[in-house]
Write a structure and sequence with these properties.
The structure holds two protein chains of two kinds. By secondary structure, chain A is an alpha/beta fold. Helices cover about 35% and strands about 20% of the residues of chain A. Chain A contains ten helices and ten strands. Chain A has a six-stranded mixed beta sheet, with helices on both faces. In chain B, strands 2, 3, 5, 8, 9, 10, 18 and 19 form an eight-stranded antiparallel beta sheet that branches. A four-stranded antiparallel beta sheet of chain B has the order 1-21-6-11. A three-stranded antiparallel beta sheet of chain B has the order 4-20-7, with no helix packed on it. The chains are: A alpha/beta, B alpha+beta. At the A-B interface, α2 of A face α2, α3 and α6 of B.
Amino acid sequence: MVAQENVIEIRNLSKVYRDFWGRKKVQAVKSLSLDVKRGEVFGLLGPNGSGKTTTIKMLLGLLFPTSGEIRILGRNAADVQKNEKIGYLPEESYLYKFLNADETLDFYGRLFKIPARERAERADRLIKTVGLDVARRRQLKEYSKGMTRRIGLAQALINNPDLVLLDEPTSGLDPIGTREMKDLILQLRDEGKTVVLCSHQLADVQDVSDRIAVLFQGELKVLGEVEQLLELRNETEIRTGHLSDEAVDEVKAVLAKHTSENSTFQRPRADLEQLFLRTVRESGERPGRRFTAEEMAATQPTEGNNDDSAPSADADTEDNPG
Amino acid sequence: MEYELEPFNWLLAIGRWGSVTGAIALIAVAIAFVASVRLGPSGLTYFSQGLTDFIRDLLSMSPTRVLAVARLTLKEAIRRKALVVFVVFAVLLMFAGWFMTSGNNRADISVGVQIWFLLTAISWLILPAAMFLSCWSIPEDIRTRSLHTVVTKPIRRIEVVLGRIVGFGGVLAVVVIVMGFAGYIWIQRQVPANIKEQLKCRIPVYGDLIFKDRMGGLAKQGINTGDVWDYRSYIEGNTRARAIWLFNDFDENMLSDVDGDGRGDQLNLESRFESFRTIKGSADSVEQGLEAQFTLVKNVREEAFSVFGFSPEFRQFSTELLAGQFQNASTSLSEIASSITDGAEVLEPSDCKYFYEASRVAIVNMNYLGEGLDEIKDGFEDAGRAANLIKTKDDTAAFDNFSKTCARLSELLAEHSDHLLEVMPRLEVSLPNVRVTEYHKGQDQVPIDRTLTFTADYESLARFLASTITEQNEAKKLVSGESLTEDLARQLADTAGMSILNSELLVDVLQEELDAEILVAQDSMLSMANKISWINYFDQLVRSERLTSQDPEGWRLTADIYDDLVFRNTLRIEVACMNDQMFIGMARPDLFIRLPDNPFAVGYSKALLCTILMLVLVVVIGVTASTIVKGPVALFLTFGVFVIGQVFHGFMSDILAGQIESSGMISSGVLILQQRNPMAGVDVSRQTQNIIESADNVSTSLLYGASRVIPDFGLYSQSAKYVENGFDVPWSTSMLPAILTFFGFLIPCVLLGAAFLKFRELEAK
């Protein structure tokens, strides 16, 4: 990935929440400085109250900085014009519950002054992309939480934005939805868009982010590329096909010549997400069948194999209304 | 009718609006500046950036986004079942008929009650919906954070505010229109067929009202009989007291076209006087009421010269001018001029001041009398100017100059007396008496034909005969050889419309004059031996009673209302009470010219439009309040503003205009505490009193501020009153103020709401 131009520049950003009388309640962000480069997926991590959402809201102009400077897409954060090229998915999908999916996207499309025909085409495409085609005529108040997140994502993309800000994008999504969301984030990156996401789901962030920043109590603690930050420089991992006990002994002997440290040998394990996705896919192909642990273990893909195509997200439409 | 009918001065209103709005904007900017200065140098940057952004937002406002929010609002209102108000309205209409059968036997009141019910039901049913919707929408959007998703799109805060207002306004307008349509059908079915003509929209043209007292002197007010205090003034019966209505800007189009030939041929007056009896009399006489007489008056001389009479020294001069005795007036003026020259101190500077003012009035009026008066106008101009130069009684040079100009004017008056008499007529046409009862039972319509027949007085008869003879003379129809034309009496009766008895009398008199060689017949024309004007000649004949009517009905002449009775576009109607020791009371709206009615639907639609404007104005205030405070507070605020604007605005204005006596808020409190009455005043030291007065001045200023920033909602309910009373809603006194007031509040409220929403943190915790 080649990332050069800064899409977001934050310099010495601070935010103090005050009470009605102007007395300081809490300092949510302290002297934060960081840049987000064009075309990267940037993860903003931190525990609750670390200032992630406050930072995002200051980027969007929903909150005013106490001090410091923000430049976003070359403009001031208070400049409404910048929103032309920004898509924002809030922490919860704050949408009008009395509208249906079509009306929701039509309304937000109008705010971008997208011509009627193009608006309808985009809305149709996005509704299909997020898997809400069969529920498009239902009012949002009848949607489950996952469906609401999906339509929230669709509205964030209605303007084909250059910069997408996702606040807890996988919150409330089932594993399939989570996977789709992650795939979509990577797809956006491949299209050259910049994605900033903040989440508590560290695995999700790890899966998609190019760079991350970790905030704690409003301060920036870690900033860097994911690959570099997670690399264990004092260990080496070798992965190969199945080996017999004899072959293992031979490898151990060879390793003993080169290192004095103990080496561990074990079978690699898939994660639960992969198991879930495989189960759903197999269930679709062979309905009525119950799978044993052995069967599933035998059919586990190797780690890093991403050829699992997730079953249709339409399954989510059968959720109970949230 | 008890509502204000003064024309609305929209230029003054716009000027006042500009100053108040500008002052509020300056205060807001000043507060923002002071607040930003507290943040140090960066604060100033925020201030300038904020101001620039705000102005840029205004300039780059997009109707597309405003309409998008408006559409959203419309859907919200529909899907949240705000329109359930229709059901309540329908139920009301279904059952209202049970309770609307009025016991009153007056058709106009019965219909008025039904219209009142309909318009009140529409506005008061929708009002709560307007308040709740507008006050709750934005706070609810902020609470549920739906607004966050919206404002992170390229939408300006002003577009959000305006979109909400347009949306709610659209919803309410649709609701009012649908209800109004249903109500119109309801009222058409509800009103019995026999009184359906009461569903009308009269269009009145009001005049200015002045009075004459019992001695004939002009007065602003009549007599106060203690009945309906301050509203109606009374004139005394069988005296020279008159109520005089001046219908300025009278137009030929104000005459109704009854026969459909495109030319107005009837003047419709409508009156609603009150009688006041000093002697109760029998039940029958009370029932019969009093008699009022309407007289249409064109008195050019009075218009032009009455002001001279304000000075005691020129009163004689004025009286002679008013009587058309210009030769006598010339003599009077000449005598005054001579006495000044002789050094007699007959005039005060104040007399000269009156003369100056009177000269200007005379010139202005003479400008309407055609050509041939330039010399005499110059004479008045010179004399008036000379009079105006007199500032002290010792200024002999100025007095001498005035004396010379008066002498010159005197000569001119004598020289032009015939022409002046000709062009400055006084014509009075009295109409048959009308009855005025106590507790005026409905309106009295007085239709007057355009062409009026009346019994001539001396002047009008002389004027008529002079014009008839001149006309016949010019046509060479009077004289045949050296004697009067044979069968002249029949000819005059046919062509000039006089009765045969009177035309025979006229011919006899003319023959006598010929025989006496006062008249000469030659060259087929009749002329005078001593060359005086025909009008003077006939004036002398009439006054010598040689032409006293032989017809029992008297000399019956005709006059055209527009051609003969209007001067300077003004129609003057005088009303007299004909009963001895009785009084008739009247106020300005009690007599009006009734133009052809508009259909009921016209006034009804205007009242509905005013209702829509009122409801949208409530929405404007509600939405503005909701941008800064939470829903319940916004609702409370909006309700408060509405109640004050609807009920107390007039009261506030009256206090500020000094029409209601008040001793100030603090003073009143002290008076109550001290249990003293307002006449006695507060019992405190001088110093304390000063403090109280200062505090009262502050409270009065606050009251002034409140009266300027709280809309007068009474303007909107006023339109319904017109329709209830069977009048059209006038543009100039009702619709225009209502519309301008609406926009006057809409613009600053939208700006204020946008500023509140822009400069507040939506996510503030």
